[in-house]
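Q: Could you fold this chain for me?
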Amino acid sequence: MQKSNSDINRDREDLLKLIISRCVEVKQSGFILASGLVSNLYVDLRRLTQDPQGINLIGKLVLSKIYELAPEAEYVGGLETGSIPIATSVALLSYGQKKPLGAFWVRKKQKDHGMQNLIEGNIAKGKSVVIVDDTITTGGSSLQAIDATRDFGAIVDYAIGIVDRGASDNFRKAGIPYYAFFSESDLRNKLV
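A: Sure. Below is the predicted structure, expressed as structure tokens.
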């Protein structure tokens, strides 16, 4: 699956077009975001993470970026629910590649029955992981997943988002290297 830079750039452009055409809503009165902030721009990437073409593009791009930025990573995951299809796609696409990656996800609240897990899926203590999410505004969901993953005993190498709405300072303050494929201004520039 070793992709050339031109293939990656084409996939990135295709993904941006899909995000603009399917996932972005504008409302002058504004939307209340999960972070509690209000914005006239809403980005619903679930429309793509549940779509065959969209999740395939996202998975390929995220896998390529993990291989580039965090080559020692063995697992990929994040907080429910935005990270689940991304991590699953990355794990699926990594099978048979230079380094397969296991997928996991972090619950917002620990189960009160069964094994009482906070983290589900494939992850191991002492191993390197990458945290992923779809749209990141403050980074709160990803930082919650990072805390849980570290408490579990894994090493967080990187956080990767599809669309960043201004969280880079929060990741920097937390000491987590962070990459996002698109910024909010990338989306706004394409809407004009």
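A (continued): The helical segments are 5-22, 46-49, 52-69, 83-94, 140-152, 168-173, 184-191.
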